């Protein structure tokens, strides 16, 4: 385990100083899921939800959230994000919508938090747009899958790792 960089020598919380860090290409992939009733799943996948296109609205929310992560998470730096991709996979078996968010930047710090925030906002948007049908939806398994760049290098979640 590495040292906790958000604490100074006196144990006070601080934002990490990235002034002298070189800009490098960085990328992160996060995933999560929203489980729901069969009826809600069909309304979403058939485009019949009364509030409009649920997945496109969730895509926009995820992109917006990635760009504003620094406003939500106190120790995150404002970044000039170069790309945010949000994708959805309909899981007819469970029923669920799986969310994937990829974020890219050329900068002094990584985009793991931006990818995770994008997934969370997309999931919350799905919930918000469909809560009148299904208040028991479950948002779950939001996690970092992979990231590249920076001092810590390449990370790929091991299928055997516990979250």
SSE topology sketch:
Layout: E1 24-35, H1 38-45, H2 54-67, H3 69-72, E2 81-91, E3 96-107, H4 112-130, E4 138-148, E5 155-156
Antiparallel strand pairs: 1-3, 1-4, 2-3, 4-5
Helix pairs in contact: 2-4
How many angstroms separate the termini?
A: 16 Å
Helix content: 25-40%
Query: What's the tally of helices?
Result: 4
| Average pLDDT for all residues | 92
Radius of gyration computed on alpha carbons: 17 Å
Tally of strands: 5
Strand residue content: 25-35%
User: Looking across the biggest beta sheet, what order are the strands in?
Assistant: 2-3-1-4-5
How is the biggest beta sheet arranged? Answer: 5 strands, antiparallel
Structural class: alpha+beta
Which residues form runs of ≥5 with pLDDT under 50? none
Globally, the shape reads elongated
Query: Which H/E pattern describes the elements?
Result: EHHHEEHEE
Fold and architecture overview:
This protein has 163 residues and is of the alpha+beta class. The chain is 28% helix and 29% strand. Strand 4 (138-148) and strand 5 (155-156) form a beta hairpin. Helix 2 runs antiparallel to helix 4 (112-130). The two termini are 16 Å apart. The mean pLDDT is 92.
Can I get a quick summary?
With 163 residues, the protein is an alpha+beta fold.
Keywords for this structure?
single chain, 163 residues, alpha+beta, 5-stranded antiparallel beta sheet, 4 helices, 5 strands, 29% strand
